[in-house]
Amino acid sequence: MSRCHADSSRTLLPAGPFLPFGIPLNASLARFLVLSLGFVLAAFCSSFGTDVVTYHNDNNRTGANRAETILTQSNVNSTSFGKLFTLTVDSGVDAQPLYLSALTINGQSHNVLYVVTENDTVYAFDADTGASLWQVSLLQAGETPSDTHGCGQITPTIGITATPVIDRAIGAHGTIYVVAMSNKSSGTYFQRIHAFDVTNGQEQFGGPVAVTAQYPGTADNSQGGFVIFDPGQYAERTGLLLINHTIYTAWTSHCDIRPYTGWVIGYDETTLAQTSVINLTPNGNEGAMWQSGAGLASDGKNIFFLDGNGTFDTTLDSKGFPSMGDYGNAFVKLSTKNNVLSVADYFNQFDTVAQSNADQDLGSGGAMLIPAQKDAAGTLHYLAIGAGKDKKIYIVDRTNMGKFNSVSNNIYQEVDGALGGGCWSMPAYYNNWVYYGPSGAKMKQFKFTNARLSTSATATSATIFTYPGTTPSVSSNGSSSGIVWAVEHTVTSKLRAYKASSIATELYNSNQAANGRDHFGSASHFGTPTIINGKVYVGTTTGVAVFGLLQ
Predict the structure, then answer these.
(1) Which pick of 58, 202, 221, 420 has the fewest CB atoms within 10 Å?
(2) Rounded distance, CA 1 to CA 18, Å?
(3) Nearest Cα residue to 189 out of 152, 158, 154
(4) Strands ordered across the beta sheet of 331-335
């Protein structure tokens, strides 16, 4: 993602019919000015480096940095490339590290790496030297990070789990948005959204703001006709989403410990005021957003995600939507029109109830939006892809997702039997290839041709990735020097790099160099590598391992 703000809702021209000095603004002149300003902005933005300001690099969640000019297929090997240093922090780093290039702090320019921990701490490091620039604790007086609630998925404490999001154009210097969980010895739990100045960690916009919500319904933890958000029952695992000046959060339970339901909540990025709330199981239970840490995906207007096992109403209304508004175990499309969250479309498998009852839901994986695909007739298709525990790949048309049919799955394409394992991870996309890292199986590479995904892998890794599998990321210089990066979760975790055109060819792994030179300990459970400006950043249970060219 480039340095410049990508929020298309920002007004660039005066709202009235005249430009300064009384020049009338007609349609032709407006188009000319928009195009001219676009070229100027593009040139301005290209003069700065590349940033990583959100989970998996962009709101499509492709995981691709296509502006990597330093790391190539020829220099990523154990002779030229390896571990440079380790950033030590106060707890595990489950969120993906984020990055701003050429940021001025105290009069000096730094490339800055932002790291958040399960101890409720935000760190800013010089991304090239590892020097600490600032850090801030999000704990208030008398608070500690949350306990695990008897669930081993986020350990040893729960603080900041979700990948933050950065808007470089908001605030005096730019803002990083973070959600943190904490509690007091009295048993009171807190979820808060924070907005920090990226240069000094100072709280902005009157933050933090406590997360509270209610939604009409009779589901778990309801009273007086409303479902109530209980901060102790949830964790913010799903990466934050920023579109149209709104920060969207999605919430998961602690294991499957009821009572819980499926919440998505939006906040204004400049006031932190709550703008919108929806519950996906308002008259049922469960149906939370897990996604193994993957961020909510968006086309700029709508939000797409996979939710977990939970109530789904098989009785449909006249438009094909669940009669009671319960969407457990669904591939969901939310409209954000007029700052109101509503279900615009969805897909549920024909056997969705049986899958939820067996805990074989979609929600263990993340949803990814596929760049427009052209079929043999030249027709463009706008697709989304997802996979969960049932080892199947589901591809939906974002304009007509398929809804629910009790006999068959009426969707754009379904690929059965090709993954070899369930997905507790997120795919990546690059040059019409899709990369999946299922649990207990080899990483698989598939290809889109004429807007259809290959029904078998075009290439596989030699390595079998044990639970939870792996979430790959991609670096390239445009369409050349493509490299797929993946973390292998073993006792001594490994960073692996593959040729993007065929992941059968491994370029490097961190176990190759003699004397354990590149060993970095245990990667974090949701570990997603960040590749930027010649370096690879990998979150671990104690910090961030930094890899790059050795000379």
Answers:
(1) 202
(2) 34
(3) 158
(4) 297-298, 302-306, 331-335, 342-347
> Could you tell me how far CA 413 lies from the centroid of its own chain?
24
> How many whole angstroms separate alpha carbon 119 and alpha carbon 156?
9
- The Cα–Cα gap between 41 and 36 comes to 9
How far is the C-alpha of 395 from the C-alpha of 413, rounded, in Å?
5
Q: What is the dihedral of CA 169, 174, 179, 183, to 10 degrees?
A: -150
On whether the CB atoms of residues 414 and 462 are closer than 8 A, the answer is no
C-alpha–C-alpha distance, residues 60 and 384, integer Å = 9
Q: What is the pLDDT of residues 63-117, one digit of tens each?
A: 999 999 999 999 999 999 999 999 999 999 999 999 999 999 999 999 999 999 9
Biggest distance spanned by C-alpha atoms of the chain: 73
Q: Rounded to whole angstroms, how far apart are CA atoms 419 and 365? A: 13
| Cβ contact 470:486 at 8 Å | yes
Give the DSSP H or E segment for 473: strand 473-477
CB atoms inside a 10 Å sphere around CB 377: 7
Across the strands, what pairs with 460?
Answer: 444
Q: Angle CA(175)–CA(181)–CA(183) in degrees, nearest 5?
A: 135
Residue 51 to residues 57, 101, 432, 503, 538, Cα–Cα distance (Å): 8, 6, 23, 26, 16
> What is the sign of the dihedral through the CA atoms of 138, 143, 144 and 148?
negative
Q: How far is CA 20 from CA 11, 14, 29, in A?
A: 16, 9, 13
Q: What are the chain's domains? A: 49-549 (2.140.10.10)
Say how far apart CA 420 and CA 392 lie, in whole Å.
9
- Secondary structure E strands in 146-188: 165-167, 175-184
Strand order in the sheet with 473-477: 64-65, 473-477, 480-488, 494-499, 506-509
Displacement of CA 365 from its chain's centroid (Å): 11
**Strand bridging mode 473-477 / 64-65:** parallel
Averaged confidence pLDDT in the chain = 92
* Cβ-based neighbour number of residue 515 at 10 Å: 6
Would you give the DSSP letter of residue 339?
G
Over residues 481-517, the pLDDT tens digits come to 999 999 999 989 999 999 999 999 999 999 999 999 9
- SS3 state of residue 25: coil
Contact 214, 229 (CB under 8 A): yes
Within 244-290, strands assigned E span 246-250, 252-253, 263-268, 274-279
Predicted TM-score (pTM) of this structure: 0.92
